[in-house]
Amino acid sequence: MSEIIVIKRKIVRSSSKKKSLPDLEFDRIAWAIKGRSNDESRKNVHCVKIEPNKIVATDGHILLIADTETEYPTGCYDVLIATWKLIVLEKVDAEYPKYGKLLEFTRPPDKVEEFDSAYNDGINLFVYKALQLEAYSIALLQRCYITNQSIKMEWRSGRMPLIITAPQHTAIIMPLKM
């Protein structure tokens, strides 16, 4: 029998009349899962990789990394269910791409922008800022967007990826080929 991981959103209410508090860890994991490929024939990027205190997903154009507080068993996992309150992962035998080189930069960024995404029009500001120096897919930018966080964006010249960071989130998006 294959290994299954079930992650449930914790519902914590601040009082009986108030809305539930957010489950930040669940939200980070759900965000990272959006980075995987939807192409089932590309098994190595259709799954997510779990490392100690980290969940990684890529489709070859974006890379999403979420830090976790919970230790999950390491390996590659297929996403069986991903809803707003439940994520079910099944361990698969796949060779995940080596993504570590994308995180290594030899030169400092040419431009850095920081802003808070906690207001209603945050996604539009995020896309606007991302497109200032390079061409990126708007659909990929939307998948990389981190809600209700202080976001930092770094650009490097020479067709380098855009680095987007927030507390316990890292996103890397490749520029479009022109």
Number of strand segments: 12
User: Largest beta sheet: what is the strand line-up?
Assistant: 1-8-7-4-5-6-12-11-10-9
Number of domains: 2
* Structural Rg: 17 Å
Give an account of the 3D structure.
This protein folds into two domains: 4-93, no CATH class; 108-173, no CATH class. It is of the alpha+beta class and 178 residues long. 17% of the residues lie in helices and 34% in strands. A ten-stranded antiparallel beta sheet has the order 1-8-7-4-5-6-12-11-10-9. Strands 2-3 form a two-stranded antiparallel sheet. The chain has helices at 24-33, 43-46, 122-130, 138-144; strands spanning 4-8, 12-13, 20-21, 48-51, 54-58, 62-67, 75-82, 86-92, 111-116, 150-155, 162-166, 169-173. The chain contains four helices and twelve strands; from the N terminus they run βββααββββββααβββ. It starts with a strand and ends in a 5-residue tail after the last strand.
Topology (SSEs and partners):
Elements: E1 4-8, E2 12-13, E3 20-21, H1 24-33, H2 43-46, E4 48-51, E5 54-58, E6 62-67, E7 75-82, E8 86-92, E9 111-116, H3 122-130, H4 138-144, E10 150-155, E11 162-166, E12 169-173
Summarize the structure.
With 178 residues, the chain is an alpha+beta fold.
List descriptors:
178 residues; alpha+beta; 10-stranded antiparallel sheet; two-stranded antiparallel sheet; 4 helices; 17% helix; globular
